[in-house]
Amino acid sequence: MDKFLANMGYGSRKEVKALIKKKRITVNDKIITKSDIQIDPDQVQIKCDDSIISYKKFIYIMLNKPAGYLSATEDHHQKTVLDLIKKQDKILHPFPVGRLDKDTEGLLLLTNDGQLAHDLLSPKKHVDKKYIAMLAHNISDHDVENFAAGIMLEDGYVTMPSQLRLIKDNTVEIIITEGKYHQIKRMFEAVGNKVTYLKRVAMGDLILDSELKLGKYRELTENELRSLQDR
Question: What is the pLDDT of residues 192-221, one digit of tens each?
Fold first, then answer.
């Protein structure tokens, strides 16, 4: 019991034992007094005071990442996206699915579901990632054709075909299916351009919530999660 309550964010094992001693925890509406009892959270109803404690194995977070944060779980010198997550939402140890560069904004999925993360990042799955980019120079029709054919980067790697579309002056939408290091910036550098601002707005069928302010996050809805799982 104490391990379950600690995993669900009700404090350390010591703090949980104190809750139990104060008779604030019930199982099927019966007060429990021992912290080492064995329970199956799928088969019983557990409450703290009058609040039902729902068992949750996985967590799925949509974050609108601001610039200045690393897409990592920890770093000894710089801020990471986990610094934006409240303590109770870090209990299940979510991690970023893929990465956004430190100065890139937008949609970042965090979860502890390793299988889903693998499926979304696997090159074989070809999951679309949509970005809005501001550029130093306007694009040409030739750029659109080159991106559709694949761009050779400075190290000789040829990217998979991508979709490039002009939105307005110096602002484009680009859809890629890979996630190479600094890929979009390197693609534009290869055609003599430069990215001055970059924001991811979609990953597969998951679209960044327009109401989610920079640095804020929320858990995925059931429909959003299903859209990712049903790929």
Answer: 999 999 999 999 999 999 999 999 999 999
Q: Give the whole-angstrom CA distance, residue 13 versus residue 1.
A: 10
**CA 214 distance to own-chain centroid:** 14
User: Which is nearest to 46 in space by CA: 32, 22, 28?
Assistant: 28
Tell me the C-alpha distance between 148 and 208, whole Å: 25
Distances (CA, A) of 96 to 71, 88, 99, 144, 157: 6, 17, 7, 30, 25
Residues 139, 169: Cα–Cα separation, whole Å: 9
Dihedral angle sign, alpha carbons of residues 178, 80, 89, 198: negative
Whole-model pTM: value is 0.82
Q: How confident is the model at residue 122 (pLDDT cuts 50, 70, 90)?
A: confident
The answer to whether 156 and 198 are in contact (CB under 8 A) is: no
Residue 17: what are its φ and ψ, rounded to 5°? Answer: -60, -35
Catalogue the active-site residues: 101
Structure tokens at 112: 């502890």
Spell out a b/e string for 119-158, using b for 16 or more CB atoms within 10 Å of the CB, else e: bbeeeeeebebbbbbbbeeebeeebbebbeeebebeeeee
Q: What is the DSSP string of 41-63?
A: TTTS-EEETTEE----S--EEEE
